[in-house]
Amino acid sequence: MRELHLVRSESTGSTLVLESPEGDRYSLAIDEVRSFLSPAEEKSEPRALPLRPRDIQDRIRGGATVSQVAEQMGVPEARVEPYAHPVLLERARIAELAKNSHPVREDGPARLSLWEVLATALAARGEDLTTSRWDAHREAGGQWIVVVTWGDHRAEWTLQNHTSASATTVARNPVASELMAPPRPAAVAAEEPPAEDEPQPEPKKRRKAVTPHWEDVLLGVRANTKRPR
């Protein structure tokens, strides 16, 4: 490789003049030097999402999390969040509606709300409903499912008539059914029948004292000897 030297006197603002030891001269455009020393970074457009926004929202509405959908598509969560946010708000609204719904029992909808029924049932077990987490998701058929979790427990209800003020919830799994059972009345101890009065022994009749006759006294007859009539 031949070594070239810069000829400053002949170089300009747009062209550099270079000279070899043999006296040969070469010109080099300054723009080429600049592009070589600091190449412009290619502005790559973000690749298209594997799923349409509507499909992303359907998965979130079906109960998936943002991280789950992002992992399935192989994209950062930030690209999923704009589509997931309105659906997450919808799920929260349905869960809040379920709190005020009336759970359906064997004899019909309860007068108390689902929140009140659960608070009473959990309090009887020494648990606190305020530590629970409420969520909702929609099945493929369009039915909303309400999920309440606390500790290791998970109870599910089907939400009905959620578009009206008379929303009701129906237990969907055994945990929910057990909580919907009406409280059993406290067992009342059977009262023992009053003990019958034991028959009291009849008082002994006092025998009337017999006054001895004067003849008996004189003759030495015993006082308890009955006088013949």
Structure explained in plain terms:
By secondary structure, the protein is of the alpha+beta class. Among the domains are: 5-37, no CATH class; 53-91, no CATH class; 95-180, no CATH class. The chain is built from 7 helices and 9 strands. Strands 5-4-9-8-7-6 form a 6-stranded mixed beta sheet. A 3-stranded antiparallel beta sheet has the order 1-2-3. Helix 2 runs parallel beside helix 4 (81-99). The protein is rod-shaped and about 195 Å long. Residues 1-158 form the DUF3071 domain. InterPro entries: DUF3071 (IPR021421), SepH-like (IPR047682). This is DUF3071 domain-containing protein.
CA-atom Rg in angstroms: 51 Å
The SSE order reads EEEHHHHEEHEEEEHH
Q: What is the terminal-to-terminal distance?
A: 177 Å
> How many helices in DSSP terms?
7
Q: Tell me, rounded to a whole number, the average pLDDT.
A: 81
- Low-confidence residue ranges: none
Strand order in the sheet with the most strands: 5-4-9-8-7-6
- Work out the strand percent: 15-25%
What is the helical fraction, as a range of percent?
25-40%
Structural class: alpha+beta
Number of strands: 9
User: Which term fits the overall shape?
Assistant: rod-shaped
Main beta sheet: 6 strands, mixed
Organism: Corynebacterium mastitidis
Domain DUF3071: 1-158
Region (Disordered): 181-229
Protein name: DUF3071 domain-containing protein
Short descriptors:
single chain; alpha+beta; 7 helices; rod-shaped; SepH-like; DUF3071 domain-containing protein; DUF3071
Briefly, what is this?
Residues 1-158 form the DUF3071 domain. The protein has 7 helices and 9 strands, in the order βββααααββαββββαα.
